């Protein structure tokens, strides 16, 4: 699918800031009528992270997901989160600062990163939809390069569907609460995006009526 020149990065809401960032986790709980904690726990279980794995989480947020991931990778694994949001970084440090195997780095995930075949798994959760396609491609390329051979890229985000055909509450959420980039992401074929960079063997798990998906993509051996 071609670039849509009407879409620009400054339309994005992915850089969560201020009060919204400070209370991001509570806000997600409210917007999902209390379903978010059990959803994210289940979704992260579906990434099938294992004890001892090295995980990179791009646009990691406030540390809520990081703590759930820590339950899976244990003391012997390690977690590196990347984020640029001041409130998110502060929240992460409060929650995870006491663990030696967890770190957060203030880095832009949409610029070329220096990680090369270092991680067993990469995660990007509710982040990819908030970028223009060119930047999504950079993020996917960063993930591919950062993964060891045989590693897995886990995307937790909207699935691909026709927004016009979705029920009113879904259309309202996408068109009135999200930025226009989200609908652009939903219209595209995420697997095709990933295949272009060498990912294959997809697995997917659907949530919230099929409108949200955990998509796992593999980097070949
Ligand atoms: C919608 S939140 C999702 C947070 C977390 N992944 C989750 O699932 O709860 C998007 C996150 O991406 C971060 N972010 C936005 N643009 C970024 C960029 N260019 N580089 C790194 N992080 C970014 C924001 O600060 C925020 O923490």
Topology of this structure?
Elements: H1 18-22, H2 24-31, H3 36-46, E1 54-58, H4 64-73, E2 78-83, H5 86-96, E3 102-106, E4 119-125, H6 133-146, E5 147-158, H7 168-177, H8 180-187, H9 190-195, E6 199-207, E7 212-219
Parallel strand pairs: 1-2, 1-4, 2-3, 4-5
Antiparallel strand pairs: 5-7, 6-7
Helix pairs in contact: 3-4
The protein binds S-adenosylmethionine (SAM).
Account of the 3D structure:
The chain has 221 residues and is an alpha/beta fold. It has one domain (16-219): Vaccinia Virus protein VP39 (Rossmann fold, 3-Layer(aba) Sandwich). It contains nine helices and seven strands; from the N terminus they run αααβαβαββαβαααββ. It has helices at 18-22, 24-31, 36-46, 64-73, 86-96, 133-146, 168-177, 180-187, 190-195, and strands spanning 54-58, 78-83, 102-106, 119-125, 147-158, 199-207, 212-219. The protein is globular, with a radius of gyration of 16 Å. It starts with 17 loop residues before the first helix and ends with a strand. The model has no long low-confidence stretch (mean pLDDT 96). Bound molecules: S-adenosylmethionine (SAM). S-adenosylmethionine is lined by residues 14-16, 59-61, 65, 82-85, 88, 108-110, 125-127.
Core attributes:
7-stranded mixed β-sheet; 7 strands; Rossmann fold; 9 helices; 221 residues; 24% strand; binds S-adenosylmethionine; alpha/beta; 38% helix
Q: Which fold name corresponds to the CATH topology? A: Rossmann fold
Second rung of CATH, namely the architecture: 3-Layer(aba) Sandwich
Strand content: 15-25%
CA-based gyration radius:
16 Å
Distance between the termini: 28 Å
Residue stretches low in confidence (pLDDT < 50, at least 5 long) are none
Mind telling me the CATH superfamily name?
A: Vaccinia Virus protein VP39
Secondary-structure-based class equals alpha/beta
Main sheet properties? 7 strands, mixed
Q: What would CATH call the class?
A: Alpha Beta
Main β-sheet, spatial strand arrangement: 3-2-1-4-5-7-6
Number of strands: 7
The number of helical runs is 9
């Amino acid at each position: 699918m071609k670039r849509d020149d009407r879409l620009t990065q400054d339309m994005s809401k992915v850089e969560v800031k201020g009060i919204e960032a400070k209370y991001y986790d509570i806000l997600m709980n409210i917007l999902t009528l209390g379903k978010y904690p059990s959803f994210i726990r289940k979704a992260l279980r579906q990434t099938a992270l294992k004890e001892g794995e090295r995980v990179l989480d791009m646009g990691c947020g406030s540390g809520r997901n990081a703590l759930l991931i820590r339950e899976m990778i244990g003391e012997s694994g390690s977690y590196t989160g990347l984020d640029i949001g001041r409130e998110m970084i502060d929240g992460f440090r409060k929650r995870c600062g006491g663990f030696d195997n967890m770190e957060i780095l203030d880095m832009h995930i949409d610029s070329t990163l220096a990680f090369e075949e270092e991680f067993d798994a990469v995660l990007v959760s509710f982040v990819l939809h908030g970028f223009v396609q060119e930047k999504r491609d950079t993020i996917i390329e960063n993930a591919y390069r950062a993964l060891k051979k045989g590693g897995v890229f886990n995307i937790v985000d909207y699935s691909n569907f026709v927004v016009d055909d979705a029920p009113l509450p879904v259309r309202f959420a996408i068109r009135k609460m999200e930025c226009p980039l989200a609908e652009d992401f939903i219209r595209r074929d995420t697997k095709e995006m990933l295949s272009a960079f060498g990912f294959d063997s997809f697995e997917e798990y659907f949530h919230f009526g099929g409108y949200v998906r955990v998509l796992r993509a593999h980097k070949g051996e």
